[in-house]
Design goal:
Distance between the termini: 43 Å
Helix content: 40-55%
Oligomer: single chain
Number of strands: 2
Structural class: alpha+beta
Number of helices: 1
Number of domains: 1
C-alpha cells in the first residue's frame, strides 16, 4: 500500500468507529437492543451492556 491508500484506509476506519460509537450511544439512550451474528446464531444484546467501544461491560 502506498501512503495515499494508507491515509484513506485510516480515515475510513476512524469514520466507521465514529458511526459505531454513535449507534451504541443512541441505542443506549433509547434503551434498545443491538442484533449480532455470533458463530452463525442471531444474538440480541441490550445496548446498555455495551460500552462505547462495543465491548460487553459484563456478561449476564
Amino acid at each position: 500500500m502506498n501512503r495515499k491508500e494508507i491515509a484513506l484506509r485510516n480515515k475510513l476506519l476512524v469514520g466507521l468507529n465514529l458511526s459505531y460509537t454513535r449507534l451504541i450511544e443512541k441505542k443506549q439512550k433509547e434503551d434498545g437492543n443491538l442484533i449480532f451474528s455470533e458463530n452463525g446464531k442471531i444474538v440480541k444484546v441490550k445496548a446498555r451492556k455495551l460500552n462505547a467501544t462495543g465491548v460487553e461491560a459484563h456478561k449476564a
